[in-house]
From TrEMBL:
InterPro entries assigned to the protein according to its UniProt record, in alphabetical order: Cof (IPR000150), HAD-like_sf (IPR036412), HAD-SF_hydro_IIB (IPR006379), HAD_sf (IPR023214)
Designated name of the protein: HAD family phosphatase
Cellular component, GO, one term: cytosol
GO molecular function: magnesium ion binding; phosphatase activity
Pfam families: Hydrolase_3
Length: 258
């Protein structure tokens, strides 16, 4: 199995359920990179929350906000956001159409919300707002509280054509630019380094990982992944609390280069 780049989701994939990675996983990632394999993270998280993990490992590239912001070697490779005016209009419309809905968004590296975010993101620094005075700056994603993935059908008709809504962990809908996907970020990074997609291995567990698992040369779902994600993957590995990604890499990537 010839792999030149590894791409992994963070939460419930590379990270254990306590949001840490083991020394073993860190060692495997470092050994992969020492063998010339590029390592990329792809996450729905913003930069500030990734920094808090203190993983002890710096990837070669990272797609934040589900691919709305892609950094490669410490420089911005690309971004695909939502205009501040559109974000403001959509949030006000959602507030009217879905009374009581929890709404938040990421602008710059700041979270804005219409509710007490400690309920879902304990300790997160947040600006409380009704979105009527949102600055006219690029927004990376809108976040809507939902009760099931089926709620997406109520949200999608309210969006302009350049945006899409995607469920996350069955409790949130992420609204983003159609160009902002993990897969799009992977393609941009791979192209920048001359790496064919068939030589990329991707790991994930949630709905927003499905496209990258299907499109990369090898798509691997952790054992704790959603059923739909497992169905989209080529292979399965052990769950996140058993260092599944690292064990797969040691066998299939380090073994390849050994």
């Amino acid at each position: 199995m010839n792999i030149d780049m590894i791409v992994t989701d963070l939460d419930n994939t590379l990270l254990r359920s306590d949001k840490t990675i083991s020394g073993y996983t860190r060692d495997v990632l470092n050994r992969c990179r020492a063998r010339g394999v590029r390592v990329m993270f792809a996450t729905a998280r913003p930069p500030r929350t990734v920094r808090r993990f203190a993983l002890g490992f710096e990837p070669d590239a990272i797609a934040y906000h589900n691919g709305a912001l892609v950094m490669d070697g410490g420089r911005e490779l690309c971004q695909a956001g939502i205009s501040g005016a559109d974000a403001r209009r959509i949030m006000l419309r959602l507030s009217t159409e879905l009374p009581g809905v929890t709404l938040s968004l990421e602008q710059g590296d700041q979270l804005y919300a219409n509710f007490d975010t400690d309920i879902v993101w304990r300790g997160e620094d947040c600006v409380r707002t009704d979105f009527s005075d949102l600055p006219d700056l690029t927004v990376y994603k809108l976040i809507v509280g939902i009760s099931s993935p089926e709620d997406i059908a109520r949200i999608a008709p309210l969006l302009p054509d350049y945006l899409y809504a995607q469920p996350c962990e069955n409790t949130l809908a992420l609204i983003m630019n159609r160009r902002a996907t993990k897969l799009g970020g992977i393609r941009d990074v791979a192209a920048a380094h001359g790496i064919p997609m068939e030589r990329v291995a991707a790991f994930g567990d949630d709905y927003n990982d499905i496209d990258m698992l299907r499109a990369c040369g090898v798509g691997v779902a952790v054992d704790n992944a959603l059923p739909e994600v497992k169905a989209a993957a080529d292979l399965l590995c052990a769950d996140c609390d058993a260092d599944g990604v690292a064990h797969w890499l040691e066998t299939n990537v380090l073994g390849q280069h050994g």
